[in-house]
C-alpha cells in the first residue's frame, strides 16, 4: 500500500472546496491548517465562534501575538481588512441561523448516514462539545477531515457510530489520508483515492460498503 | 447627584456575592477577556457553593513550585480565571461548553474534583449556552433549537418536531451576578471591548441580576461614540477599572 497523506496535504485537499465569497468556520486541529491553502484567485471569509468575521493568517512572530485577537482554536491570528468583532450570542446567530456556508471539523467517527462523533472518547468524560454541535447542526455544508483509521488501524468510517454523536446526518464530505468520500442518500460514494491507493484498499479499511462510481479519480494535489 | 457606577475597589464590587450564587464569567481561551481582578476579589471574599457559568471552567494557578508550562506565554498579564475559585473550594457546579480533557498527571482542580464526585458539571453546546444567556437577558423563558436533537444533550428535555425537523427545548439560564471584562467604560456603564475579548462578555452583560464590569480605563461621558457602544449602559450595574480601582489585600 502507498503512503498516507500527511496533515498538510489533507488540509490542502480540503481547501480545494473553498469557493470565492464563502464564509468558512474551521474546527480545531487539521481544519485550521486549511487556512494556509486558500486558492490565490479566491477570497474566503473566516468566521470564529469567539466573535470574529474575516480574520487573517496565523500570527508568526511573538510581536504579532495579540491577546485580543485569537481564533476559536486559541491560536493568535492577525487582522485583515474588512474584519469585524461581535459577541458570542451574535456569533452563534450566524452559526445556528444557517449563515455559515462551510464548516470543516475533525472527526472520531463518521457513519454511513453522515452521523458525526467528534467530542467524547469513552473513558475521557466529560468531553468537550465546544461549538462543534452548533456548527454541525447549523452550517450549510460540513466537511470532516480525519485520518481514515484509528492508531490501531481500525476503521473510523462505520455503519453506526459507537461514540456519543455530535449531530446525526450532518456530514456532506469526508476527506481522509487515503480518500475523499461523499455522503449521499444512497450511501457513501468514493470520489477520490490518494495517489497509489486502490478502491479495494480503501474499502478494506472502511466498514460500510462504498459505492464506486465510474468517474473515481486519483486526488490531484 | 450624578450617576456614577464606578467602584473604587474590586473587593467592594463583589462584597454582596452570597453562598450558592450563580455567576456568569466572561472570557474565551487565552484572549484577554477574563475578568481576572474581579475573580481574585471573589477569591478573597470567599463565597461558597457557587455555580460558575463560562465557556470553560478555567485552569486555575499552577501548583506552588511547579515549573512553568512549556511553550510561549499563553495568558495575558495579571491573569486569573474561574479555576482559581475551583481550587479554593468555592465552586460546586460548572455550566460550560468546553471543560477540556483531564490528562493523568495534568489534572486541573476541576477534573480532580469531578473525578472525586465533589463537582457537578452541566455540559452545554456553546451556541446553546450563549443563547440561554441571551434568552435570560431578553426575558425569553425558553426556546427550541435543533442543536443537540438526537444526541445525549436532549436527554430529559422536551423535544418537538417543527417544520419537519426535531428540536430541543432549552431554558433561559438565570444568574445572580455577571462578571464581564471590557476595555473602556463611562460612568453610566456604556462599554466597548477589544477584538475577540468581547466573546461571552458581551453576551453576559445584562443577563444576570447584577452585572459587574472590569475595564482597563474609564473615559468621560460622551467620549465613546454612540454608534460604536457595544454594551449599552442599561445592562451594567457596577464598574471597576484596572487603572482607577484597587485590589484590596492583593
Short description:
The complex is a heterodimer of chains A (221) and B (250). With 221 residues, chain A is α/β, with parallel strands linked by helices. Chain A is 16% helix and 20% strand.
Structure description:
The complex is a heterodimer of chains A (221) and B (250). Chain A is of the alpha/beta class and 221 residues long. Chain A has helices at 7-15, 30-33, 88-96, 132-138, 199-204, and strands at residues 23-26, 45-48, 52-53, 84-85, 102-105, 109-111, 116-117, 142-145, 157-158, 173-175, 179-184, 187-193, 217-218. Chain A has 5 helices and 13 strands. In chain A, helix 2 links the parallel strand 1 (23-26) and strand 2 (45-48). Chain B has 250 residues and is of the alpha/beta class. Chain B has a single domain, classed as 3-Layer(aba) Sandwich (Glutaconate Coenzyme A-transferase), CATH 3.40.1080.10. Chain B has 6 helices and 13 strands. Chain B has helices spanning 10-13, 36-45, 83-87, 109-115, 126-138, 199-204; strands spanning 22-25, 50-53, 91-96, 120-123, 142-145, 159-162, 165-171, 175-181, 184-185, 191-192, 208-215, 217-218, 238-241. Chain B starts with 9 loop residues before the first helix and ends in a 9-residue tail after the last strand. The model of chain B has no long low-confidence stretch (mean pLDDT 94). The interface between A and B is large, with 42 and 48 residues.
Amino acid at each position: 500500500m502507498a503512503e498516507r497523506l500527511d496533515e498538510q496535504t489533507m488540509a490542502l485537499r480540503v481547501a480545494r472546496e473553498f469557493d470565492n465569497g464563502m464564509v468558512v468556520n474551521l474546527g480545531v486541529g487539521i481544519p485550521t491548517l486549511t487556512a494556509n491553502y486558500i486558492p490565490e484567485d479566491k477570497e474566503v471569509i473566516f468566521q470564529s465562534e469567539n466573535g470574529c468575521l474575516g480574520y487573517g493568517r496565523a500570527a508568526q512572530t511573538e510581536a504579532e501575538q495579540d491577546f485580543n485577537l485569537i481564533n476559536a482554536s486559541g491560536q493568535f491570528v492577525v487582522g485583515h481588512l474588512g474584519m469585524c468583532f461581535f459577541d458570542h450570542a451574535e456569533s452563534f446567530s450566524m452559526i445556528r441561523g444557517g449563515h455559515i456556508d462551510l464548516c470543516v471539523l475533525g472527526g472520531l467517527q463518521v457513519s454511513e448516514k453522515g452521523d458525526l462523533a467528534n467530542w467524547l472518547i469513552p473513558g475521557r468524560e466529560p468531553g468537550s462539545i465546544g461549538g462543534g454541535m452548533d456548527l454541525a447542526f447549523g452550517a450549510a455544508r460540513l466537511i470532516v477531515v480525519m485520518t481514515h483509521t484509528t492508531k490501531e488501524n481500525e476503521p473510523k468510517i462505520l455503519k453506526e457510530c459507537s461514540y456519543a454523536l455530535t449531530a446525526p446526518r450532518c456530514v456532506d464530505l469526508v476527506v481522509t489520508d487515503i480518500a475523499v468520500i461523499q455522503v449521499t442518500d444512497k450511501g457513501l460514494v468514493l470520489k477520490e483515492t490518494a495517489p497509489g491507493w486502490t478502491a479495494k484498499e480503501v474499502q478494506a479499511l472502511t466498514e460500510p460498503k462504498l459505492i464506486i462510481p465510474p468517474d473515481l479519480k486519483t486526488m490531484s494535489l | 447627584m450624578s450617576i456614577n457606577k464606578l467602584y473604587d475597589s474590586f473587593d467592594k464590587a463583589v462584597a454582596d456575592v452570597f453562598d450558592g450564587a450563580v455567576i456568569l464569567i466572561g472570557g474565551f481561551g487565552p484572549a484577554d477577556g477574563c475578568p481576572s481582578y474581579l475573580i481574585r476579589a471573589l477569591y478573597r471574599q470567599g463565597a461558597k457553593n457557587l455555580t460558575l457559568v463560562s465557556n470553560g471552567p478555567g485552569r486555575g494557578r499552577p501548583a506552588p513550585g511547579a515549573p512553568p508550562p512549556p511553550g510561549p506565554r499563553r495568558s495575558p498579564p495579571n491573569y486569573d480565571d474561574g479555576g482559581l475559585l475551583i481550587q479554593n473550594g468555592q465552586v460546586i457546579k460548572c455550566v460550560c461548553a468546553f471543560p477540556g480533557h483531564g490528562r493523568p498527571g495534568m489534572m486541573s482542580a476541576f477534573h480532580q474534583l469531578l473525578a472525586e464526585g465533589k463537582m457537578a458539571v452541566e455540559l452545554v453546546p456553546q451556541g446553546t449556552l450563549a443563547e440561554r444567556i441571551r434568552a435570560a437577558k431578553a426575558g425569553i423563558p425558553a426556546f427550541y433549537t435543533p442543536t443537540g436533537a438526537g444526541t445525549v444533550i436532549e436527554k430529559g428535555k422536551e423535544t418537538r418536531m417543527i417544520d419537519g425537523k426535531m428540536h430541543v427545548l432549552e431554558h433561559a439560564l438565570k444568574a445572580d451576578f455577571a462578571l464581564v471584562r471590557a476595555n473602556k467604560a463611562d460612568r453610566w456603564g456604556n462599554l466597548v471591548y477589544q477584538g475577540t475579548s468581547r466573546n461571552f462578555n458581551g453576551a453576559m452583560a445584562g443577563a444576570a441580576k447584577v452585572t459587574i464590569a472590569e475595564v482597563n480605563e474609564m473615559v468621560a461621558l460622551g467620549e465613546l461614540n454612540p454608534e460604536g457602544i457595544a454594551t449599552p449602559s442599561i445592562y451594567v450595574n457596577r464598574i471597576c477599572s484596572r487603572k482607577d480601582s484597587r485590589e484590596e489585600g492583593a
